[in-house]
Design a protein that fits this description.
Layout lengths: L4 H17 L11 H8 L10 H13 L20 H13 L10 H18 L6 E5 L2 H19 L4 H4 L8 E5 L4 H9 L7 E4 L9 H9 L8 E6 L11 H10 L3 E5 L24 E5 L11 E5 L2 H8 L29 H36 L3 E2 L7 E5 L4 H14 L5 E5 L2 E7 L7 H19 L1
Parallel strand pairs: 2-3, 2-4, 4-5, 5-6
Antiparallel strand pairs: 1-7, 6-7, 8-9, 9-11, 10-11
Helix pairs in contact: 1-3, 4-12, 5-12, 6-8, 6-11, 9-10, 12-14, 13-14
Family: Belongs to the group II decarboxylase family.
Keywords: Aminotransferase, Decarboxylase, Lyase, Pyridoxal phosphate, Transferase
Cofactor: pyridoxal 5'-phosphate
């Protein structure tokens, strides 16, 4: 008889110990790479080891090398945490071990994702009938959406890219803000379009695309003369600023362009009654990308892609093969909307998070993170620390003594000190500390402790 209880009990006990310690745990790794190799390495095992011992060894070996990104005082990289319902559902997703590529392979996973997709479309106020794909993250969400866009703009030009490829195809223009996220460039590389197809549109001092500059670039096209994709941004990765999406959509559509919105974290402002004006008009776009492992706070990995036009979405992604069992009754085969064949049932944790929080709970997380970002900025301003951005959402850009070296040293000192953790960046040629408030547990005490730690580290660097 298989012993499931031993390893699973060990895993449960260690998971609970880790989670309960998070509020007071040092926010940063406690071991070097060499120490981790020493703890986890060694020769290739030749024989079997008891599964419970394996779990125990693994948990002990990695513990000091974990970056506690689920902590309420973790402010790096726009990472979220994991809510109890989504974490528990993610465990069950692993236990059930469903291949969610086809309805035939897991009817339950397919129906959960179908229901969750409809909830998400309603939550964001997107057009009825919008298609949804559950992918790994915003990188693959942008890739999938831009694959659909590539299909459609070339179809309008009389070219079938799925059949004919790109050799000899019409040239595609991609107009995107100069402060776009790098996942756009990477997706275009994956799609064979290359980054030379991008024409950067000038931005303002907060990184927002200038609508007048976009209109001027589009006028060079005529209407639809050149297949064109416009990439807008909802939430600049440094400042949190939003492109004027309504103007972008109106102008781009008037010239026959497809509009894609990279809303990795910013599109969640749509759920908040107090912040939704930041994304006014986003529903007019043709496709959208976001992460559930950011503000919905589900475990990694979990990205979402939406397309207002299911036909090009399916045309870019779907596959048919004799051995596959595609459903004939209209049930959802997820491989029609994802770049993966075999895939984890990522929709299950998303379903659990939405059901547990509801619209109001999700809005509360977004609103609280925004308020905590403002609180952090206010603390630092009071101490005459420079805030480089307008804190419109959850991002705070900080610069110390108008000095690159001092700013970078403060970032390093804060990371080493362990009260909180945030990353550095470069904004408009200047070094900055980037504070991202995205965790569902972050509260005023976390902000106050963290701001005090930042100022303490600043004094040490000055001293």
């Amino acid at each position: 008889m298989v012993d499931w209880e031993g390893p699973l009990s060990e895993a449960y006990d260690r998971a609970l110990t880790y989670l309960e310690a998070l509020p007071e745990r040092r926010v940063g790794p406690r071991a070097t790479a060499a120490e981790l190799h020493e703890a986890l390495g060694g020769p290739l095992p030749t024989g079997a080891t008891d599964p419970r011992e394996v779990v125990e060894h693994l948990a002990k070996g990695v513990d000091d090398g974990l970056l506690p990104s689920g902590s309420g005082r973790f402010f790096g990289f726009v990472f979220g945490g994991a809510t109890p319902a989504s974490l528990a559902a993610d465990w069950l997703t692993t236990v059930w071990d469903q291949n969610a590529g086809l309805y035939a392979a897991s009817p339950a996973a397919a129906v959960v994702e179908d229901v969750t997709a409809r909830w998400l479309v309603e939550l964001f106020g997107l057009p009825a009938g919008t298609s949804v794909g559950f992918v790994t993250g915003a990188q693959m969400a942008n890739f999938t959406a831009l694959a659909a866009a590539r299909h459609e703009v070339l179809r309008r030009a009389g070219w079938d890219v799925e059949r004919q490829g790109l050799s000899g195809s019409p040239r595609i223009r991609v107009l995107a803000g100069a402060e776009r996220h790098d996942t756009i460039d990477r997706a275009l590389r994956f799609l064979g379009l290359g980054t030379d197809c991008i024409e950067p549109i000038p931005v303002d001092d907060q990184g927002r695309m200038r609508a007048d500059a976009l209109a001027e670039a589009l006028r060079e096209n005529g209407r639809g003369a050149v297949p064109t994709i416009v990439c807008a941004q909802a939430g600049n990765v440094n400042t949190g600023a939003f492109d004027p999406v309504a103007e972008v959509c109106e102008t781009a559509h008037a010239h026959g362009a497809w509009v894609h919105v990279d809303g990795a974290f910013g599109i969640w402002a749509r759920v908040s009654s107090g912040l939704r004006q930041l994304v006014d008009g986003v529903e007019q776009a043709d496709s959208w990308a976001t992460d559930a492992h950011k503000w919905l706070n589900v475990p990694y990995d979990s990205g979402l892609v939406f397309c207002a036009h299911p036909e090009p979405h399916r045309a870019a992604m779907s596959i048919r093969a004799a051995y596959l069992i595609q459903d004939e009754n209209g049930e959802r085969d997820s491989l029609d909307y994802n770049p993966e064949f075999s895939r984890r049932a990522r929709g299950i944790p998303v379903y659990a998070a939405i059901r547990a929080l509801g619209r109001e709970g999700i809005a509360e997380i977004v609103d609280r993170c925004h308020a905590m970002a403002e609180r952090f900025a206010d603390h630092l301003r009071t101490a005459d620390v420079e805030i480089l951005n307008d804190v419109v959402l959850n991002q705070v850009l900080v610069r110390f003594d108008d000095d690159d070296a001092i700013t970078r040293r403060v970032v390093t000192e804060v990371q080493n000190e362990g009260t909180c953790w945030m990353s550095g960046t470069t904004w408009q040629g200047k070094a900055a500390m980037r504070i991202s408030v995205s965790n569902w547990t972050t509260g005023p005490e976390d902000i106050d402790r963290s701001a005090e730690a930042v100022l303490r580290c600043l004094q040490q660097v000055r001293g």
